[in-house]
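Sequence in, structure out.
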Amino acid sequence: IFGPVVTAYVYDDATPWSEVLELVDSTSPYGLTGAVFSRDREAVREALVGLRQAAGNFYVNDKPTGAVVSQQPFGGARQSGTNDKAGFHYNLLRWVSPRSIKENLLPPTDWRYPFLGEE
């Protein structure tokens, strides 16, 4: 299947929110873009946690029509991509092995810390 594919799920208020999130998270193998609309900040927080692997781009109370090119990372999760955000610096991390190097060009002459001194 090649999209766009839209899935909208309107749930019964009697269904616990956690069950709704589990169902939405487990239903589709695709995950390019997702969105949740809510006035309840706690429900939004739970959705951000419960659906953290559901989509590469996730919107809260905004249209999920895609990223602004060169201004926002864009890449899908699951069978919609490798989540490496094409067109953004995160994509480079797939091809590199970053490491940190620290070199001290002026070695200390005293190992004591001033705040450890006696008063």
